[in-house]
Amino acid sequence: MFCFKLWSQFGVFRDPLTITQNLTFPIPPKTTIGGMLASILGIDYNAYFNDPEYFDFKYSLVLEKPIRKKSFAQNYVADYTKGSETKISIMGKYLNTRKKYNEMVQEKMRLEDSTDRSKKEENFLMTADKKIETEFKKFEKNSDKFSKLLSSSFRSPKPIFRELLIEPEYFIFVKDFKYEEQIIPYLQNHFSEFSFYMGNSEFPANYRLLACKWELETSDILNTFTSKPSAIVFEEEKKYTNVYMATKTIGKREYREYKNLILCDKPIRLKDKIQTYAIKTDAGKYYCEFV
């Protein structure tokens, strides 16, 4: 097992089940922690997504301070580049078919007035009406698209509802990680092969290795989360949050093995004592459940 403190000025851990809104989990999911560990080691995401053993590790965490969120609506700038490309393409097809149609009509009229026609020109006249009719249909189709184009305008995207975490800080505990021996020197030297950020490339994150010792103990207290809501003694003065998160990612960011967790920024009291991990660090002693 190893432990590290994780913090940033801002953070966002997007819930993949949301589509039109950019909502964040209050804590980094196990899948995000796995990605952070891969960034430190320099493992490409295609490599660990397709490694069936990579997410076999267990993780837990403790909130260093209460969760703070900021909600707001964000207006995105319309992408005029793609719209311009489409308009230019439609305009080009309209002009080309109009030009070709006019040229064929003029050529037919010229040959009909001519008394000295070659065999090739005679063959053209024999099929000219059919070819002109076909070209006219293409011209009509492109002309209709061009008319609609002239009457249309760029449409700006709708505002997106977003959430941000403000100054998030966590103690992260990782157990049975496949590359534990390799990653410890990186953590000790505060080194990361790839960019290290808090769930989004806009928000660079920082970390610090923590010395920790652990042992199994029986306790009626758990820190930060549990996957067993029926075991909780809910207390009025405490705020509980329910989250539903994946614990594994495979293939092309396909999420698997979801867990339902109950979070609390204060110690969670249980109905009965259970065997749990008691983890001692310089910051304190914590009783944790691993998922």
TrEMBL record:
<dbReference type="GO" id="GO:0043571">
    <property type="term" value="P:maintenance of CRISPR repeat elements"/>
</dbReference>
<keyword id="KW-0051">Antiviral defense</keyword>
<dbReference type="Pfam" id="PF09704">
    <property type="entry name" value="Cas_Cas5d"/>
</dbReference>
<dbReference type="InterPro" id="IPR021124">
    <property type="entry name" value="CRISPR-assoc_prot_Cas5"/>
</dbReference>
<protein>
    <submittedName>
        <fullName>CRISPR-associated protein Cas5h</fullName>
    </submittedName>
</protein>
<dbReference type="GO" id="GO:0051607">
    <property type="term" value="P:defense response to virus"/>
</dbReference>
<dbReference type="InterPro" id="IPR013422">
    <property type="entry name" value="CRISPR-assoc_prot_Cas5_N"/>
</dbReference>
